[in-house]
Fold this protein.
Amino acid sequence: MEELAIRVEHVSKEYRLGAIGGATLKGEIQSAIARLRHKEDPNLKIGEKAHGKNERFLALNDLSFDIKKGETVGIIGRNGAGKSTILKLICRVTAPSKGNIYLNGRITSMLEVGTGFHPELTGRENVYLNGAILGMTKAEIEKKFDEIVEFSEVGQFIDTPVKRYSSGMKVKLAFAVASHLESEIMIMDEVLAVGDVAFQNKCIERMKKVAEEEGRTILYVSHNMATVKSLCNRCVVLSHGQVAFEGETEEAIAVYMQDENLDNTTFFDVSGAKRHRKCNQRHLLQNLHMYKAENTILEYGDVFPFRIEWNSENADERLLMKMVINGIDATPVGVIFGGELKHNQGRNSAEFKFDTSYLVPGKYTVDIILYDEDESGNIMFYDRTTALRFTVEHGDKSLKLKHWFKDWGNAVLPCIEKINGDEKNV
């Protein structure tokens, strides 16, 4: 155990659905009486279903992995995969139903914005309170106090009650406390999603520093694959409460980004996909078909045709289309404009072709965006959804050279053209 910081050994966590759901003791008693009388639960929300007595949910199922001292490990997976549950077990917020978790060192955790902060206390008082909860002495906290306040960027408001802080201010102070107090293990759950971009970069650099120079262990959960890629040495991918993959970050992200339901099909039905709340859906994409491809694995330089189908409620509105090409870490690689789509009310279709010569070998996703833009540049979004996933492989047309995505990116740009044919000394 000397080299290990965390060991998760055959851990399972089971919940009884609806067993305890009231906000108060009075509510629980009312619900229990209603169940005994076979009447409707008065505390259920409209449309909410009453769970049976024996309904259970297995959030984690025989989970095992080890994390060594000084490692920065990402925990990634889709919503409901069990990421937050395992962090709560490691932090001892709750106990596992089966299995054991061994820890070697003190833990600092941020499971949500402002974890451990008392809203009525000032920022200064909460720094001391949070440090005491984490097992630090008053002398240890005082030694780090000025650094914490400076890093948090809320020094002007340090004596203001935390209840008056914005969510961004809370996460800044909470992260500053967590990263400066002398614990051996730091656990972060999607906390950087609230802060601004400059502070996010500052936090990432701080985490890299404490991992490399101070030898701390960091467990980081995020849906932002760019930050996971830049920060983590390796990743654990969770799926349905189990370990789907454990290893290098690049390969882990590739596993995470795969869609289990596609089965290498060339027909993508997106009619029932969840849409962004900013899309008004008056023009709604239905499907995308790569109609001359046998599968979604393409050779570098292939040009493949595809057809999109969509429904339009209004034939009088102008409709534009563009494609955003994303890398395996969900970072946009480039955008392709498809121009104006001619359409009628009801079902419509249009055909396009795509040249893979501008992409290096790798895995990609494509977002289709239906929109309109006025003369002032204001955009009306009708629809946006991930409509295509494909892989580009080395072929006869590629140079088959090793490509470092992190340093060089995903796009192959056109060669620089010489102004004249002769090189001249300047």
Remarks:
- The CA atoms of residues 281 and 382 lie 5 Å apart.
- The chain has nine helices and 18 strands.
- The first strand starts at residue 4 and ends at 16.
- The radius of gyration is 26 Å.
